[in-house]
Amino acid sequence: MVKKKLSFEDAMARLREITETLERGSVTLEESVKLFSEGAELSQLCYETLGAAEQKITELSKICADTEEA
């Protein structure tokens, strides 16, 4: 479980670690399931963070466009 709010960069770094560990196949099935679950949560966090950034950029672009028209 992702307990604390990670930065986007930290979440991506942890996702890379999880992916590499799972690809190596060096952990038990139980640990693989735990890592997969953590990865899914991190992926959701990253998706939401990117969505919020996209929304903010869209809003700022509209403000800039409105300012240029005035």
UniProtKB/TrEMBL annotation:
Keywords: Cytoplasm, Exonuclease, Hydrolase, Nuclease. It is an enzyme of class 3 (hydrolase). InterPro entries: Exonuc_VII_S, Exonuc_VII_ssu_sf. GO terms for molecular function: exodeoxyribonuclease VII activity. Gene3D superfamilies: Exonuclease VII, small subunit. Its main location: cytoplasm. Its EC number is 3.1.11.6. It catalyses: Exonucleolytic cleavage in either 5'- to 3'- or 3'- to 5'-direction to yield nucleoside 5'-phosphates. It is found in: Cytoplasm. Pfam families: Exonuc_VII_S (PF02609). Heterooligomer composed of large and small subunits. Bidirectionally degrades single-stranded DNA into large acid-insoluble oligonucleotides, which are then degraded further into small acid-soluble oligonucleotides. NCBIfam families: xseB. Belongs to the XseB family. This is Exodeoxyribonuclease 7 small subunit. It comes from Anaeromassilibacillus senegalensis. The gene is xseB.
